[in-house]
Amino acid sequence: QPGNVIAAKSDAEGILENAFWQIALNENGTLQLVDKDSGVRYDRVLQIEESSDDGDEYDYSPAKEEWVMTSATAKPQCEITHEAWQSRAVIRYDMAVPLNLLERSVRQSTGRVGVEMVVTLSHNSRRIDVDINLDNQADDHRLRVLIPTSFNTDSVLADTQFGSLTRPVNDSAMNNWQQEGWKEAPVPVWNMLNYAALQEGRNGMAVFSEGLREFEVIGEEKKTFAITLLRGVGLLGKEDLFLRPGRPSGIKMPVPDSQLRGLLSCRLSLLSYTGTPTAAGVAQQARAWLTPVQCYNKIPWDAMKLNKAGFNVPESYSLLKMPPVGCLISALKKAEDRQEVILRLFNPAESATCDATVAFSREVISCSETMMDEHITTEENQGSNLSGPFLPGKSRTFSYRLA
Questions:
Q1: pLDDT tens-digit profile of 146-170?
Q2: How many domains does the chain have?
Q3: I need a surface site. Which of 82, 263, 280, 316 has the fewest CB within 10 A?
């Protein structure tokens, strides 16, 4: 059954609000955000940028005759629902875009991209969750979602497999890369695994993504996140690109499926924070968003008859607990060749060391450090205390024997 629906406030047309955020919808479907704690404002959030992609499956490259379009003039249909535990805005519009590179060169736009955004603000959450559904009916182009900030900074933080790195938002080599004999322009388009963050002073904004790995910080003042939603290209390898002159990177073979025609779904989340990303637990917040608790609604009858189990399980159970900041869990599993539990932790910070505190709900008989292949490298220690600090980007694996 549907959840309880509460009536919208009469003075809050186009407003989503909780204890941390006030969100207003602009006429073109973008958002105006106000962080209630810091007072920082963000405007024109979630604008869509559409541009050419004359590259291949290896590299992005704009067309020599570029024509960039945005959703700034969109006329969206908006629906706002206030529920008992969350508020949600659904924004829908179509963008007329060039069908291909030829149309772009003559400023025609018979192609189409359908956009649906679902913005969810839970009543007790610092996050703004965004689902973006696209219907791509055009070729050889790139779609990005823009998240402007007010932060003056020359670097951006992004996570890696076992840590994080600070990247420059602008590469000075872009000004003279051809004169210096570079084979390819050093475009400051970076990759992330789960999150990227911009910060000035004590205030920052982090963007979490599920599967969207490519981002750039753009604009005259380099304050705007540009997250790539899709790149549509038609060739595996292509020669003489605008940003990569000369030979093709790979075989010049048609790959029509790489135009990504049809429906595509993406997920993002925005988190404002104060202090450093490490102290604010940005990495832990991203992990919590990416791996939510899985649950299901137990219906009052059994869809399939099964034999009753010979044991009872508790109504709730937690194997271990860790602090909300510091080390992150990379793996938790049964050991391959012994009756023990394997726990792998890593320090997601870029420069700060940290200690790990793990509290098991069961008695720990012994704890040993292992290699990643689970071969024990240290003698067994009594209890669950982990000796030694974790260096930045350091991962360590432990084997626990529990009572």
A1: 999 999 999 999 999 999 999 999 9
A2: 2
A3: 316
